[in-house]
Amino acid sequence: MRDEESRGKRTRCLACIAFGVIAQTIIIVLFVVIVMRVKTPKVRLESVGVTTLTASNSSLKASIDALVTVKNKNFGHYKFDEAKATFSYKGTDIGEGTISKDKAKAKKTKKINVTVSLNSNKITASDISSGNVTLTAYAKLDGKVHLLNIIKKKKSSELNCTIHVDTKAKANKEAATSPYPLMPSAPSYMRSDQEAAASAPPSTEELRHKKRMRCLLYVSIFAVFQVVVITVFALTVMKIKSPKFRVRTASITDFEVGTASNPLFNLKMDVHFGVKNTNFGHFEYEDGIVVFTYRDVRIGQTNVEEERVRARSTRKVDVSSVDLTSSGLPANSRLGSDISTGIIPITISSKLDGKIHLMKIIKMKKSAQMNCTMEVVLATKSVQNVVCK
Length: 389
What we know:
By secondary structure, the protein is an alpha+beta fold. 22% of the residues lie in helices and 51% in strands.
């Protein structure tokens, strides 16, 4: 019953450990995928207002108030340096503004006002006459994403927008994010989707995404390896078994046996025991008694002194010779019948109480029990058929 209770406790303990490891693995994976995944903040031109505008022939002079937003989707703040926002017309810079050094909080959007003065004498007359002048706005923010005040990862965000200025209405018509990133000096034509997909190399974001996936793969492999190691450790090292107490050898040194009509015996037996400890921690047991019985009647006993059995080893236990006598048997015993058959059956039983010590931290009570049977053969005055359960 005690072994079943101990086995149930070990099973529950192992289940708790396995559940804890699995939960820990899931938490680590989710933490890496969600919290530790660093994304590139997005810089956008939220709105543009033209405060003053003068356009004639090929000349354009204007003052623009632009609202730039920095959207940070990370779980850490994004600290960026001062940057220049350049406005160009057909690859030629015609004005610039300053995006001041600032910080976008975690999971927040930072709004920045930028004032730009435009001045150019190279606007085509057709654009001026049509009242639609297309400008390109470009800026690059260099900064770092700070996670947990420990991790700092460099991230660069680019702003690339087109602005259509209605020179007749003297106000901007629209501000839209360009689907094709163009540097200020890039050609004025737009490529098709097929050309862009065929010729464009993998973007920095794609490469970083691949690196994150590899990192996640390594973390997952490590977590699985950790689960396997802990499970194997719990099933082998931490699995505590009851030590075994057995009869190693037995011999008779003094022999006196009566007849079937006058049944009696007085034997002196030399017995050697062994305590086998299969655990990964040593077993310390207390003093014990080994009892010899004949058909459930005690005929002798010997003492076993306290000792320690090292981990995964067997300790030999030698005792002094044991005197076995039939003087305590009842008158109706079957001793006469056994003497006539030439075999006297003897049972040896004992229990050694002690503790298993693991890593000098865990101490678990365990008992080494012995239940052995043997036969004393009268013809040869020897002990045979020693069987231990």
